[in-house]
Amino acid sequence: MVRLRKAGHPYNEIAALTGLSRTGMYDICTRHAAAGAKALRAAPGSRAAGGGRRLDAAQGAQVRRLITDRTPDQSKMPDA
Predict the structure, then answer these.
(1) Least buried of 19, 36, 53, 65, by fewest C-beta within 10 Å?
(2) How is residue 70 annotated by DSSP?
(3) Inter-helix orientation angle 22-35/11-18, to 10°
(4) pTM confidence score
(5) Is residue 78 part of a domain?
(6) 25 in a domain, yes or no?
């Protein structure tokens, strides 16, 4: 992505090629310009995907089923 930008390709074109938003591409290029490739790595101490959850996978699946199988009024929710 950074190489494409340095080669003169516009953000919109790079975003279309990579599937990222134009804003996301701009942010990546700005971080790279400010601090190099190390700025694109996850920060130490970043929470792992799924880390810190209070529900296990089975409980999460059950909650998703309850939400998607019913309308808000059936679940006694005030709003969608």
Answers:
(1) 19
(2) S
(3) 110
(4) 0.47
(5) no
(6) yes
